[in-house]
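Recap from last week: sequence in, structure out.
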Amino acid sequence: MSYELPKLPYDYNALEPSIDAKTMEIHHTKHHQGYTTKFNNAIEGTDLEDQAIEDIFSSVSSHSTAVRNNGGGFYNHSLFWSILAPNAGGTPTGDLAEAIDNAFGSFDAFKEEFAAAAGSRFGSGWAWLIVNAGGDLEITSTPNQDNPLMDVADVQGTPILGLDVWEHAYYLNYQNRRPDYISSFWDVVNWDQVSENYSAAK
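Predicted structure tokens:
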């Protein structure tokens, strides 16, 4: 199978002022498109063409760096766009809210721990909220375009929320102020989608 760049369910300017339109356009049409094209090229003509991307990740250590980096870039960004929305933010409800309270003590404590994971990731990478093998919520981060589905990840699980902390995700608007970008992220999180991801991952 070949992978296609997903269309965004909102306009490039819809997430302003948290994420500016120019950053969204470049991020989607250049960076994400690039990962998508290179991932397709990396698996073309191999037995990976017929495998689900989750299965590729489960043994990614045995594949090329092109598969690892570009497959991660394709998947990570696809998840990222889906958990963002205009006029979003607020707080989660229902089972997800209860699970966050159980795992972290409170929603505010969760935000602090997640922001710390995102802020302390050296260089380029991602911060994640995952459902681990025990069915519990856990915060982790990965370098580059790795993710917790990969067998190379220090902490493995199913990601339900991710934040891109590569400089290309925020530098036009925030320059080196990654903490400001992380803080603004909460204003555009689509908690309904994250809740759906949580239900599916359980």
